[in-house]
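DM from R.C. (forwarded with permission)

"hey, sorry to bug you on a friday — could you get me a structure for this? deadline for the figure draft is monday and I only need the backbone to look sensible"
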Amino acid sequence: MILGSFQPLTMPPVIKTIQEKETRTPSGERIAKVIARAGMCSRRDAERWISEGRVKIDGNILSSPAVTVNSTNKILVDGKPLPEPPTTRLWRYYKPQGLLTTHRDPQGRPTLFEKLPQNLPRLISIGRLDLNSEGLLLMTNDGELARKLELPSTGWQRRYRARVHGYVDSKILDKLKEGTTIDGVKYGSIKAVIDRQQNSNAWITLSLEEGKYREVRKVMQHLGWPVNRLIRIAYGPFQLGNLTKGALIEVKQKVLREQLGLELKRENSGAHRRR
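My reply, with the result:
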């Protein structure tokens, strides 16, 4: 199966929440957002750290993430000041099967972060791929960017190639464009086409914008065609291309500016100075 070389797709500018500078009020920004932008963790993890009492503002332990801060506030995490926000960076990674998309697993199963080179900054995955799925996973050192690129409101399509068991009916596939509901869960429009039928298996290419947990597998199972291999081949303008399994390649800064429309770190660098 040839996946092709890496060529960023030409797409309309990313939604305003990514492309344009955010409007800031004199009252500042939410504390979890500031921590995430510093590259320490995702916004969700920052909120958890706050609930665990690990964050102080002006000497006081914070108990709620519903707090805004500005350049006059002194923020400490685990007793240390926040680092200056690093330059936003993005990597394409070919996640192999058999690795969890998490930093650590209570059951001791292997994670992709354990397999990454040790000389990298702390990376955050943009979305996830489940244990038995493979293919393109975007990684960044910018927690706030990761959160934004996961949102369906970007309009970015996730494209997959799925090998399913069974004889696929193209007319049934076409109906997925209208969305479907399974066990009370509504799934959005999916564009799906048959690439080829090989005996009792078929390869299908699917494009979707939402990407709920195990969505492709659940929808195909619902139609009677269980997935036995699933490869993500594109996430928005970024493609798997000719990456080999386990390979990690950084996206050039020029490509980031062109594809994301970002004033890369930091249109907001002055919004909060660490002291």
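R.C.: lifesaver. The domain at 90-253 is CATH 3.30.2350.10 (Pseudouridine synthase).
me: no worries. The radius of gyration is 21 Å.
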